[in-house]
Amino acid sequence: MPQKTPLYDAHRKLGAKMVEFAGWQMPVQYSSVISEHEAVRTAAGMFDVSHMGEIEIRGQGALEVSNRLISNDLARIKDGQAVYAGLLNERGGFVDDVVTYRFSPERIFICVNASNREKDFDWIRGHAKGVEVLNRSDEFAQLAVQGPRAAEILQRLTAVDLSKIDNYHFTEGKVANVHCIISRTGYTGEDGFELYCSPEQAERLWFAILDEGKQDGIQPAGLGARDSLRIEMKYALYGHDIDDAHTPLEAGLGWIVKMEKGEFVGREVLQKQKAEGVRRRLVGFELIGAGVPREGYSLLKDANPIGEVTSGTMGPSVKKPIGIGYVRADLSMEGSTFDVDIRSRAVPARVVKTPFWKKS
Fold first, then answer.
1. Among 21, 108, 178, 320, which residue's CB has the most CB atoms within a 10 Å radius?
2. C-alpha distance from residue 208 to each of 177, 212, 213, 224, 333 (Å)
3. What pTM did the predictor assign?
4. 279-296 burial, b if ≥16 CB within 10 A, otherwise e?
5. Measured between alpha carbons, how far is residue 353 from residues 167, 334, 335, 338 in Å?
6. What's the confidence (pLDDT) of residue 146?
7. Among 236, 256, 77, CA closest to 169
8. Is 237 helix (H, G, I), strand (E, B) or coil?
9. Chain Cα centroid distance, residue 90
């Protein structure tokens, strides 16, 4: 049986269409994917992301231990900051992609993908020696309030000065009288916050934000809009665009790999790959012909397979059929062309600069 988040009853009250995702009952949409997508781009949308997992590393040396497990560098940031990073295996592939929060050198908090909660916990516990590793996933609900009006809506509900929280910074405080970790992070390409609170307080916080944001046009948003928003930004989704067989360098995420920090799991393989060059790259492309690229569709050059679509949609904001996929390195340059096999029809496509969506 799929698990239910603490907000399951709230979604039912709002008439959400529910689907199973990563072992959870989740809302795919409330009104329509397009209207929820546009609300996030123009006003604000709120997502239930309580299915995500939270793992904490505590004790003397937590910072150093955590830094050996992720590709980014926690030593370069200060307490109250976070980094996006790869949790990598010995082959340089993704165990997961994570957001890692530095509370202090003795307390590191890692947000992991829903489908990887137990796997990541086991992997971290197996590699983190001399520190305490806690799976705190059931202790938190998580709400993501995203969009150009997200900050002003939340500001009316909190005494915390949100203007002082920069991107990828966080603090703790009350929102609508509910204690939260308040993080200026998100997965949509818009400004916004992710709020971690106790499961018991989640529904009260959810409806307080919806009520406060009604005048600003806030909408509850489901997985459908979350997917179209992140595809327009070429944000990778674990299990689709990245996995344990693909490295950050192949996925165009070299910026989250800090070789200069010293040893971390997967470093040796990545160093070799960097020196020799990658054979495949994750690219963003748009269709030149009619159709919509969907995950699993083959990519062809001169009728020969060169890769496949890992994510695709008709972008509601860019108003084009867009996709993401791995291709041979020689076809990864902007302007390169190939075909997408859409139901036995070869539809021309062109590699474009990403993100697809750029704010005016």
1. 108
2. 10, 6, 9, 23, 47
3. 0.97
4. ebbbbbbbbeeebbbebe
5. 23, 6, 9, 15
6. 98
7. 77
8. coil
9. 23
Q: Which domains are seen in the chain, by residue range?
A: 3-50+140-232 (3.30.1360.120), 53-123 (3.30.70.1400), 279-351 (2.40.30.110)
Which amino acid would we find at residue 113?
N
Closest CA to 37 of 232, 324, 325, 284: 232
DSSP secondary structure letters along 290-343: SS---TT-EEEETTEEEEEEEEEEEETTTTEEEEEEEEEGGG-STT-EEEEEET
Phi-psi sector, 240: left (phi>0), alpha (psi -120 to 50), beta: alpha
Q: What is the pLDDT of residue 307?
A: 94
What is the spatial distance between Cα 80 and Cα 178, in angstroms, rounded to a whole number?
Answer: 20
User: Strands, E, within the chain: which ranges?
Assistant: 3-4, 17-21, 24-29, 44-48, 53-58, 81-88, 94-104, 107-112, 132-135, 141-146, 170-175, 178-183, 192-197, 218-220, 280-287, 298-301, 304-315, 320-328, 337-342, 345-351
Give the whole-angstrom CA distance, residue 273 versus residue 265.
14
- Three-class SS state of 239: coil
DSSP 192-225: EEEEEE-GGGHHHHHHHHHHHHGGGTEEE--HHH
pLDDT value at residue 359: 82
Cβ atoms < 10 Å from Cβ of 151: 17
Q: What's the pLDDT tens digit per position in 351-360?
A: 999 999 998 7
pLDDT of residue 331: 97
Ranges of the chain whose pLDDT falls below 50:
none
Residues 6+ apart with CB under 8 A from 30: 11, 14, 15, 16, 17, 36, 219, 220, 221, 222
